[in-house]
Amino acid sequence: MTDSPRQSPPYRWALATFAVVLAIYLVTLAPTTAFWDTSEYIAAARVLGIPHPPGNPLFIILAHTFGLLPLAASYAERINLFAATTSAAAAGLWFLVAERWLQGIVRHRWARYAAAFGGVLVGATSWSVWNQSTVNEKVYTVSLLSIALVMWLVVRWGDDEAGPHRDRWLVLIAYVLALTSTNHLMGLLALPALAVYVLWTDWRVVTRPTVLIGVAIAAVVGISLNYLWLPMRAGQYPPINEGEPVGFFSQALQDVLNRVQYGKPALTERQASFPGQLANFWQYYSWQFARDWGQLSRIATAIFTVLGLSGLWALWKADRRAGVAGLALLGTLSLGLVFYMNFKYGFSQYPDQPSLPREVRERDYFFIGSFAVYGAFVACGLGALMQSIVDGLRDRGTAAARWAATSPVLALAFVPLAGNYATASRAHETMARDFAYDILESVEPYGILITAGDNDTFPLWYAQEVEGIRRDVTLANLSLMNTEWHLRQLARRETPAFDPARADAIWRSFPVPRRPTTPALALSIAEVDSLPEAMQVPAEGGIAFDSLQIRFGQDVLLRQDLATIFLIRDNKGKRPVFFSWSDGGYPDQTLGLSAYLLSQGFVRKLMPTPVKPSDTVVLSQGLGYVDIPRTNTLLWDVYHWQSATRARPFGWVDPPSGSILQLYSVVYGGSARVFEAAGDSTVASRADSVAREVTRQLSGRAMF
């Protein structure tokens, strides 16, 4: 059966594709928050806050609205479902694009539908796309949807008859592009493909005044969220307000939109060699098709590389305009993005060269656009292969039999589904949420907890703002205390009341102090803004607050060090101060506080006088002074050690965030030695078994 290339788009089949992909994502959906930016964005959506630059107002508004829908009991799960839905919707749109591109390659309608579905399934179950679609870690699934929507509108524009009706498509495309830029600039990467279609089809359209005016007005409306919503919402000072872009067209707003915080060098100043950056992209690309299959994944990578590139070639021959546009899109999302992002060497790239400057985590998620788009070219490759088989069979059997003979080819489309399922899935993973609960409940009522980075802070923001867990605890992040906005928020924050009924049972009989009425950081906003970024250590090399002696371990103090000193000074006798074990040796090496730190599970409490050993306090080699009763209670009655030791087929998949999991190994392992020395071999053995299992998870040797 053959049909005309100009037929009504198969919207029902696109809807079916959306439903199938969404079902896959639902089965593997994360039940709660996760590490990295997941918690930050879920919490920001909940409070209509402003996450890290560039602020992402479109994402926040969409996710907040979606989160109001009663689609799941957990708010985090609803936002994860938002990621799954937007990514699946992108797959449905890519089905439409792929089917249209296949019209010049495959003559049989149902074979076209099958090839389009197969290729889109490959893109949707590519490892990075799938992994990002089952938890709302970033804003990129909205960008995936935007790119797919723009490409479908571009294709429809290209098929329309010249005239005012077709011109309106361009106005709509301009609006979508401008609007998606307020989510993330990734959405703009469809522009080169748009340019190819416009210049190839009717370049004069860009010279018509009515089109130019309509496009300009649409762009202004679309981008207005950046310049209206961001400063207005920032001026209301929500709980998450990164960069505080208060004021229309203010410098703070420009700094947020321009990502000044990251201090990226000029593109001419490469952070790694360009060949090395290309090799890093290839490393990520090689993960996409069968990451679970070890060495066999190389075969899958080779097969899909040939299939996708042959599909692009088939598209080039059948429809030169679409082929050039597709090549421009794929090149922009891969080689162009590699050049523009200018990353350091990948976290796991060249493991035999440990001295290379590296990214703090894997950056494969930046390239999910290219992996999703590649599915459309795989669709063309599948279709071209099926058509060539039918042509090779010529007049053998019936037409239906010849097309049926090509159906085994479609089995290739299910390779990524089978080859990525175990590690792309986020189902049953609750580690980040459980860690946040564990460390927050380690802190006494109205305590201050000093943390180090993203993974030991963002889950805590989530726990406090979304689930209402221990909101009385004031969180001070060392890296963020180098920024003025974080210190301003510490200076403004009113401490919520401690609620014993919502706290862990360990604190319900604890003598709760009076609720503090002043902020944890007792500096005015002007004083905060006047803090230097760095200063020389005073000649005496330390400072004393009554019996508490701070001895500086370096010649220069950063803003974070000054802020920590002020937190200690301003809260002595008012609020207990705790350092997370994720801070490593910071309080010991930078502030010389080892003698004043009492280890209690995942935190160390700062004592007003040097700690002395007793029946309940011992000095250990790994954990310093340890409060045995409190630590024992936290480890077994409060902490979710079962989450840390949960059976994972390939162990902990994300090594960069494994440092948080490592805390369980360090604290439980160190406590085991303490319990053993105290004569409790049973508890010591139990703690040691937890530490060992966590270590196995981190090494990837925990095969179940």
Strands, helices and their partners?
Layout: H1 11-27, H2 38-47, H3 57-67, H4 75-102, H5 109-124, H6 127-133, H7 140-159, H8 164-181, H9 191-202, H10 209-234, H11 251-257, H12 274-285, H13 296-318, H14 320-341, H15 368-393, H16 399-404, H17 415-424, H18 431-440, E1 448-451, H19 458-465, E2 474-477, H20 484-492, H21 525-529, E3 534-536, E4 542-545, E5 548-551, E6 556-558, H22 559-571, E7 577-580, H23 586-589, E8 597-600, E9 603-606, E10 617-620, E11 624-627, H24 628-638, H25 641-644, H26 658-677, H27 681-699
Parallel strand pairs: 1-2, 1-7, 8-11
Antiparallel strand pairs: 3-6, 4-5, 7-9, 8-9, 10-11
Describe the structure.
Helix content is 53%, strand content 6%. The protein is mainly α. It folds into two domains: 414 residues, no CATH class; 197 residues, no CATH class. It has a seven-stranded mixed sheet. Helix 4 runs parallel beside helix 7, helix 8 packs parallel to helix 10 and helix 12 packs across helix 14. The two termini are 49 Å apart. 49% of the residues are buried.
Average pLDDT: 94
| Order of strands across the main sheet | 2-1-7-9-8-11-10
N-to-C CA distance: 49 Å
What's the total number of strands?
11
Give the total of domains. 2
Radius of gyration: 28 Å
Structural class: mainly alpha
Characterize the main sheet.
Answer: 7 strands, mixed
Sheet-strand content, in percent, reads: 5-15%
The low-pLDDT segments are 1-5
What best-fitting shape do the alpha-carbon axes yield? globular
Assembly annotation: single chain
**Number of contiguous helices:** 27
Fraction of residues in helix: 40-55%
